[in-house]
Amino acid sequence: MSSRLFSISFDAQDPERLAEFWAGTLGLGRAEEVPAYGGVTLLSGNDAGYRIGFRHSAARKTDQNRLHFDLTSSSAQDQEETVARALGLGAQRIDIGQGPDAAHAVLADPEGNEFCVIEPGNNFLAGCGRIGALACDGSQAVGYFWSETLAWPLVWDQDEETAIQSPDGGTKITWGGPPRMPDPGREPHLDLVADGDQEAEVERLIGLGAKRLGATDGVVLMTDPDGNEFRVLALH
Q: Where is each Glyoxalase-like domain found (predicted)?
């Protein structure tokens, strides 16, 4: 038994507005509504097979997110066009200490979620699609946990840094090792669908090191071994 990654989800004060931003920046279409999800989703167009989701939350972001998208570029012109498109849709350039000589661009979407537009020629993200990586702050142990949870093999495991990728390819999920950044109060998270009995899958995840926080309307809220919240949905 395993879980399938249903969506990489953003909590947003205006989910429709944020969905429009990411749809326009990445050229993505709206996915069919799933009532159990409780928000708006986009088709990621990615071999990993997940959606990008947006759900309403009144919580405010107070610090830098501990996870963000790394968008890929096929050329210097493509990188410039992606940045210009995002800025035109409401993004802002930000400084998180990358320095003036950084080859990648660091931006924030209209609700302050950081993301990077990576320069062309990045071998680690080659072939991963436009959303090359979901880059996370986290421990080696949490990388192992998510590898077991999703049945995505480890594609990097060195110096406490880990990365996993779907057997079908697509976006990599990476963890940078210690030290961990402060909790920003609101940041993207993963939403899963159990392949089989939801309660049995929840128990399996607890055995892997997750904790159950509660459940409502067929959705189980949990935390991974680093304390990051995620949800397990029942869609059948």
A: 8-118, 134-233
